[in-house]
Design brief:
single chain; 276 residues; mainly beta; OB fold (Dihydrolipoamide Acetyltransferase, E2P); Ribosomal protein L2, domain 3; 2 domains; 7-stranded antiparallel β-sheet; globular
């Protein structure tokens, strides 16, 4: 999927690039597979801002994507659609009984292709089957962590994990981050790499496109007052005045490891993503 670059008619156009959307074949979502997405501007149920720099943005509807793929048998791809809620494209499929659903579109999936779900499915992009039935070395995506819960890992555009080995009821999977972890072999995964592989090469070009996504400006702590941020205050450009950078609430930031050393999932991780 190549990107489109514009002539530099304005400063924002000079470096802007957008996806060509060549893979898109269906331009309107399925009505019974979308729900209204309520905006909360980063606020929780008590009205307090728990996620900063959120608000505004274009109206979007959430597409209900089937990550579980419990319907066994063959399904036909009707169209590839854009999804404003994720970086990957989604595919509308229809099974033999006429039921339609969305799946995350793997690379190379086209209209009219057949995708299968179940332990007897072939090793082809878009097919979902248990890890026990997938050959070692295969590229996979939408990996379950608990049988029947649905794909949780590797769902972003252009990503793929690799099945390294299988033994003692556990499958060893190398994730895109470099982390190696074990997953139960009765968990399911989808064959192939996620499509829209050039998503990370797109240049936004102007601030307004970020606002359209519902992201508000981020203000540096060093330009705030001392009452608003630990880095604030001082005459002119002042140092932060602490041994290391801090969050607005005084916690260590920028490189400080916050993952719990005794996390419940630690026993499943064979190699951490930044391990040397």
């Amino acid at each position: 999927m190549p990107t489109i670059k514009y002539k530099p008619t304005t400063p924002s156009r000079r470096h802007m690039s957008v996806p060509s959307f060549e893979e898109i074949t269906k331009f309107t979502p399925e009505k019974n597979l979308v729900v209204i997405k309520k905006k909360n501007a980063g606020r929780n149920a008590n009205g307090k801002i728990t996620v900063r720099h959120r608000g505004g943005g274009n109206k979007v509807k959430y597409r209900i994507v089937d990550f579980r793929r419990l319907e066994t048998g063959a399904s036909t791809v009707i169209g590839i659609e854009y999804d404003p809620n994720r970086s990957a494209y989604i595919a509308l499929i229809e099974n033999e009984s006429g039921k339609r659903s969305y799946i995350v579109a793997p690379l190379g999936l086209k209209d009219g292709d057949k995708v299968y779900s179940g332990p007897d499915a072939d090793i082809k992009p878009g097919n979902t089957l248990p890890l026990a039935n997938i050959p070692v070395g295969t590229l996979i995506n939408s990996i379950e962590l608990y049988p029947g819960k649905g794909g949780q890992l590797v769902r972003s555009a252009g990503t793929a994990a690799q099945l390294i080995s299988k033994e003692n009821g556990k499958a060893l999977v190398r994730l895109p981050s470099g982390e190696v972890r074990t997953v139960p072999m009765n968990c399911c995964a989808t064959i192939g790499q996620i499509g829209n592989i050039e998503h990370d090469t797109v240049k936004v070009g102007k601030a307004g496109k970020t606002r359209h996504k519902g992201i508000r400006p981020t203000v540096r702590g060093s330009v705030m007052n001392p009452c608003d941020h630990p880095h604030g205050g001082g005459e002119g450009k002042s140092p932060i005045g602490h041994p290391g950078p801090l969050t607005p609430w005084g916690k260590p930031a920028l490189g400080y490891k916050t993952r719990k050393t005794k996390a419940r999932t630690e026993k499943f991780i064979v190699k951490h993503r930044n391990a040397k």
